[in-house]
Amino acid sequence: MQGKGLGNKLTLEEAKKEIEKLREEIRYHEYKYYVEAQPEISDYEFDMLMKRLEELEAQFPQLITPDSPTQRVGEKPLEGFPTARHDPPMLSLENVYSYEEFLEFHNRVLKALPGEKVEYVVEMKIDGVSIAVQYENGVYSRAITRGDGFQGDVVTENIKTIRSLPLRIKEKRFVEVRGEVYMPKDAFERLNREREEKGEPLFANPRNATAGTIRLLDPREVARRHLDIFFYYIFIERDYPRATHWENLQLIKELGLKRNELVWFCRSPEDVLKIWDEWKDKREDLPYEVDGLVVKVNSIDQQKRLGATAKFPRWAIAFKFPAKQAVTQIVDIELNVGRTGAVTPVAILKPVQLAGTTVSRATLHNEEEIRRKDIRIGDWVVIEKGGDIIPKVVSVVKSRRTGKEKPFVMPRKCPVCGSELYRPPGEVIWRCPNAACPAKIRESILHFVSRNAMNIEHIGESLVDQLLKNGLIKDPADLYYLKKEDLMNLERMGPKSAQNVLDEIERSKSNDLWRLIHALGIRYVGEKTAKLLEEHFESLDDLMKADYNKLITIPEIGYKVADSIVHFFRDEHNLKIIEKLRKAGVNFRRLKDVEEGEKPLAGKTFVFTGELDSFTRSEASAIVESLGGKVSSSVSRKTDFVVVGKNPGSKYQKAIQLGVKTLNEEEFLQLLRESGYSI
Ligand code: IVH
Questions:
Q1: What does the pLDDT look like over 83-114, one tens digit per residue?
Q2: Is residue 92 in contact with ligand 1, taking CB distance under 6 Å?
Q3: CB 162 within 8 A of CB 214
Q4: Which of the following CATH numbers is that of domain 438-583: 1.10.150.20, 1.10.1740.10, 3.40.50.10860, 3.30.200.20?
Q5: Is the CB of 211 under 6 A from ligand 1?
Q6: Is the CB of 306 under 6 A from ligand 1?
Q7: CATH (residue range 12-71)
Q8: Does 318 contact ligand 1 (Cβ within 6 A)?
Q9: pTM higher than 0.70, yes or no?
Q10: pLDDT averaged over the chain?
Q11: Which of the listed residues 144, 180, 210 should we mutate to test ligand 1's pocket, taking the one with most ligand atoms within 8 A of CB?
């Protein structure tokens, strides 16, 4: 796919060979995309092929032929529908993928309009199919696909099924509005589910589904698929009615035509970048797919003076978001054992760029999924990054099969400890039943320290692996018994990093209760449920005592979760870990919720000496901190209170010496009460 960089000069012969290969490849992918609506490579990869061909043709203009893919605007219209011409032609947009490239566009615009102020309108680039819709005498009359930009298919009846499309508008002159037809994500998922049930091939994404739907010959079937539309251009009597794009968008709305409300007015390229940066991730939350921003010069007069090249307007650009889909090859299928013992197959991929990162693994979920999608080792596949961090395999590119691909057989033994796997009735996931399975232990420790659980920084995969390998820990609770010497004997661990790790572990002892509940790794108890449980139980001990009937009375807790919690706290192994955590001084109590900004002990420093009856040292520290106070380990003139328990140490004398205020346990409890903590 990658050609040689331009730095290496090719001979005419070499260039000719590469150009021919590129053209053949591009024609093939154009056919798959436009005619069959079943693309095998991502838009980005396609653009890269095209870019390389353009580069070579610029270097060797004598090799340009009229039938080169670079020499035309779009693709042939499809058969089966009457065709109509576009006036003016429907151009396409040039893509940029980075801010640098976007700035090049901006500078080109400035250069062509010397001394003028340029303002942009930014819109979402809807990942659908572009369409021109016409109204005559205020009545919907025709809809034409983009086709090759000059001529497209007349699909009036199919577009008419779109509920948001008005069939009458108040403007009586000849109106043409252009925009994007798309399939909302939920309609797309529903459609694919139905196709799956019927054993029909699935659509790789909503755009393909839209393209496929528009060319259906039966409008009743189109109607069932719930397409929708956003308009972004309006012509009246074949010209722009108002002086700026912004005002034209306004008119679209005034006429009752649907436009996307996500539009921005920008005075600088930095403003555009801000929107791009914000929406490259937030786009996941939209109910329809977008693949970038479209940035348009606002003034129609400036647009007209900027004009267009053979293919693209010079006054607009597509500023694409990082690609979510890519095509790559499965080199192998491995098994991953999770903390609950779930054994999931994982595809090992030829590394590929996707949404700004290099991806070399993708989840395959389970055996059923592999069978359903007919995924084999050696297959070329479309992978996609959705809301989750781990990409998934969307579909297999069957046309690239050579016959050498190997079907995957799910082993019946745990790949890590060799135990016989079992599959609970009605479930699709195989599990390793061995509580001592090293893979389960490793994952449970990683979960325990993770950001949304105990949030212990500086402990990642490699440290956990070293700790396990050296026998320093066997479960998460062992972390609290690590000594500095233990850590310092490990690779790449100096005294300072060792201390950092220990400080982080120490800090985690005063975490909120919900973090501990989540960290324990109870099946079906994620962060949200853990927070909910914290609302209903004051301490871990309370939760441990709760029986099924009590748990089930909490409205959001279902039987599956309740059952799982009860079982978790009956398990000997789990109870041992919990007792070890308690002994280490990990906070087991709910900390008083203090409203944001309301920190009655803010600015006060506390030192503890001796034992308290009501709390462990770390619980007391956690409470003080939750009320905004600070806890220190040594007494100085800056200390506000020294809390003195039974058998106090030298800190008590030091407090007297320095004249620092001391509190006995009762006084301390009184202070907490006064600060709004209920005991
Ligand atoms: S303007 C002359 N605006 O992107 C300018 N296009 O890659 C033509 N698209 O063919 C297009 N959202 O199908 C424009 N807000 C938007 C768009 C948009 C999606 C599509 C359209 C176009 C393609 C160009």
A1: 999 999 999 999 998 899 999 999 999 999 99
A2: yes
A3: no
A4: 1.10.150.20
A5: no
A6: no
A7: 1.10.287.610
A8: yes
A9: no
A10: 89
A11: 180
* 198 against 11, higher pLDDT: 11
Residue 36 has pLDDT above 80, yes or no: no
Which pLDDT band, with edges at 50, 70 and 90, does 27 fall under?
confident
Average pLDDT estimate for 178-198 = 91
Residue 8 has pLDDT above 70, yes or no: no
Q: Whose CA is nearest to atom 7 of ligand 1?
A: 93
Q: Are 142 and 154 in contact (CB under 8 A)?
A: yes
Residue 301 contacts residue 308 (beta carbons within 8 Å): no
Instruction: Judge if the beta carbon of residue 123 lies within 6 A of ligand 1.
Output: yes
The three state secondary structure string of 256-306 is: CCCCCCCEEEECCHHHHHHHHHHHHHHHHHCCCCEEEEEEEECEHHHHHHH
DSSP state of 237: T
Answer whether 367 contacts ligand 1 (Cβ < 6 A).
Answer: no
CA of 181 to the centre of ligand 1 (A): 11
Tell the CATH superfamily of the 596-674 domain: BRCT domain (3.40.50.10190)
Q: CATH 3.40.50.10190 in the chain: give the residue spans.
A: 596-674
Identify the CATH homologous superfamily for domain 325-402. Answer: Nucleic acid-binding proteins (2.40.50.140)
Is pLDDT larger for residue 203 or for residue 359? 359
Alpha-carbon span 675 to 599, nearest angstrom: 8
Query: Is 125 noted as a catalytic residue in this protein?
Result: yes
The active-site residue, picked from 21, 32, 76, 125, is 125
Domain 83-320 classification at class level: alpha beta
* pLDDT at 426 (0 to 100): 81
Indicate if ligand 1 lies below 6 Å from the C-beta of 180.
Answer: yes
Burial of residue 404, with CB atoms counted within 10 A of its CB: 0-12 exposed, 13-18 middle, 19 or more buried: exposed
Q: How far is the CA of 98 from the centre of ligand 1 (A)?
A: 18
- Which ligand 1 atom sits closest to the C-alpha of 125? 12
Residue 361 is predicted with a pLDDT of 93
Which residue's CA is minimally distant from atom 21 of ligand 1? 130
Nearest CA to ligand 1 atom 12: 125
User: Do 3 and 18 touch, CB atoms closer than 8 A?
Assistant: yes
Q: Which two tokens stand for residue 135?
A: 């109204």
